[in-house]
Amino acid sequence: MEAPGSAPRVGGRPAAAPAVRLYVFPHAGGSGLMYQNWPALFPPGWRVVALDAPGHGTLMGQPPLSDGDALVGHYLDRLGPELDGSDAPFAFFGHSMGALVAYELTRRLVADGRTVPVWLGLSACGAPRADAPPVPIRTRELSDEELRRQVARLGGTPPKVLDHPGLWRHFAPVIRADLRLVETWRPAPADTPLPVPVSLFGGARDAVVGLDALERWAERCGRLLAVHVFPGGHFYFHDAPEALTDAVVIGVATALRTPSAPLAGR
Question: Which three-class secondary structure state does DSSP give residue 216?
C-alpha cells in the first residue's frame, strides 16, 4: 500500500503520459457533475469524460436502472462504437458503484475481444463476492429519512439535496435504486484474472469499504500496479482531488510504459 506523492507538474497540472481519454464512472446516486473540475487537473491533451447513468445528471429524464447487468449493457451500447474506433489510448476510473461498473465493463470488453482500456482505476469499492456486496450499504427496510441520514454520513451528496424536502423526494428513489443495484449485484467470476493494469484507491477512514475488501481485487486482477490509501473516508478526494488525479496520471503513464500492457486491444 502507498499514499502517492505528487506527480511532476507543469503549469499547475501533472506532466506525464501522452493524450489519453479518461472515462469516469460516478458513485451510487452521483453524476458527472462531481467531476466537472477534473479536466483542469490533468495534462494537456487529456480528455476527461464523466459519464451519467440513466436517471442521473444529463440523463435525469430517463428511469434509473436497478440491475447491474442492464447498467453495464447501457454503457456498452453507449461507448462500444467509440471505444472500438479509438486510435488514442483510453482508461477507466470508477468510484464506489462506479468501480464495479468500470470493472465489469472492462471484463466484458476483454471477454468479447474488443478494444480495452490501457488502465483501470477502482476506488472505494470491495471486490465482488458471492456472500457479500462490494459496497455494504443496506437499503431494505430503510425509510426515506433513515436513508437520508445514511447518505449524509457517507458524504458525496450536496447538502442542498439532502436538506431540501422537494429535492430529496426527487433524488431518494434514484439513490435507493443505485444502492439496491450494488446490494444485489454479483458479477460472475472471470475465467482468468483481468489482464488490464489496475490501480486501487481508498480512504484510510472509510467506514463502508475497509482496506481488506479493497485489496481483495488482487484476486481478480492479473496486473495490480498499486494500492493507494489516502486520508479521509468514503469520499476521500471530495475536497482536495489533486492527490488522486496525480495518482491516476502516474498509473496510466506506468501502464503505457509497460511493454506487456494491452494497448487498446491492438
Answer: helix
The H-assigned helical ranges of the chain are: 68-84, 97-111, 144-154, 159-162, 165-184, 211-215, 242-257
What pLDDT was estimated at residue 135?
59
Catalytic residue positions, numbered: 96
Tell me the one-letter amino acid at 59.
L
Task: Please state the pTM of the whole predicted model.
Answer: 0.85
Task: Quote the crossing angle between the two packed helices 68-84 and 165-184, to the nearest 10°.
Answer: 90
Q: Are 102 and 94 in contact (CB under 8 A)?
A: yes
pLDDT tens-digit map of 168-197: 777 777 778 777 877 777 777 667 899 999
Residue numbers of the domain that contains 179: 9-257
Grid coordinates representing 147 are: 436513508
Specify the CATH number for the domain of residue 98. 3.40.50.1820
Distance CA 201, CA 3 (A): 9
